[in-house]
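The following record pairs a protein chain with its ligand, flavin-adenine dinucleotide.
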Amino acid sequence: MIQSLSYDTDVAIIGAGPTALFAAFECRMLRLDCVLMDVLDCVGGQCTTLYPEKPIYDIPAHPSITGSALIEALEAQLAPFSVPRILGSRVTALEGIRGDFTLTNERGDQVKAKTVIIAAGAGAFGPNRPPLEGLEAYEKEGTVHYFVRKKSDFAGKHLLVAGGGDSALDWALLLADTAEHVYLLHRRDRFRGAPETLAQIEEKVREGKIEKVVPYQLHALNGANGKLDSVDVISLDDTVRKLKVDHLLAFYGLSTDLGPIATWGIQTHRSSIPVNPATLETSAPGIFAIGDIATYPGKLKLILQGFSEGAMAVHAAYTIARPETALRFEHSTSRGQPGETL
Ligand SMILES: Cc1cc2nc3c(=O)[nH]c(=O)nc-3n(C[C@H](O)[C@H](O)[C@H](O)COP(=O)(O)OP(=O)(O)OC[C@H]3O[C@@H](n4cnc5c(N)ncnc54)[C@H](O)[C@@H]3O)c2cc1C
């Protein structure tokens, strides 16, 4: 029997995406203990799950860095401190008051914390799955995907990339040279993408690397024991085409359901949590929100903004975790090398 984990800490951080990882670093720089909790079994949030191999161009001091390289760098920055992580289970309950909270996940692990930072991104984020018969078996076998972790998994394969937005277009382009052949399926004639991306798609179509299948929709998966043999697609006038493919990659967006967070008595607005922009505190005293899930006038859903919010929230949380000690602001250059400051 697996024993439930239990921690008593200063700051419980819900999420282990980029903003959570940096907030954990900030906690340790201020000598606050913290625990990271994520429903995914790996750290990195959207960067790891949705676009590990795509370059990000707007991280300060990094002209270009892929999603996975950014997370590796954040992990390296955090490495001098050993921050406990509870991964692979959703935090479902948050109870208590400022200074004394208890968080519980689906597995029954418990964290007692003086303050809480919610860095849960799009909340209980999950892909919008196409309503196809027998889908689950193909998902389990790894022939239907909603994320790409490694381009090399698709080397020499026949792929059907479905969806009309940025993700479908970007992945069709990124996989066009790795895969043997890429079908790009959309229910309309026109794709929604940046003019430059659309021009690159046309280029790949001319080279014969990408074949557009429009206006068609997914209709049926064909195969056995989760191994895909072909996918039937259907047009508006009910014409059915059979596409011989090894993998289906469906990019129909993410559901942005706050999930259990919406039941914790914190004021929410659509799929976000309004916060005081000076402290990142939510409507519930002692509970902060940072990153994509936090909203306030002028908010930009950018990683760099999430980093800044993490630093601000941790400084505000300090007064709750250490009410007896006044926090003296110091630059990291004065605090000294991470790890040696403890
Ligand atoms: C294709 C794509 C390209 C992008 N490009 C850029 C870019 O160029 N520049 C840029 O700045 N931003 C970019 N972004 C946005 C960027 O990825 C997000 O702003 C960033 O990931 C937000 O980080 P976060 O830590 O707030 O949330 P996330 O990365 O979403 O991480 C949140 C984590 O919380 C976990 N979680 C949620 N609810 C719970 C719960 N109840 N219990 C436990 N865990 C929970 C989730 O599993 C997830 O791991 C891009 C996003 C996408 C999808």
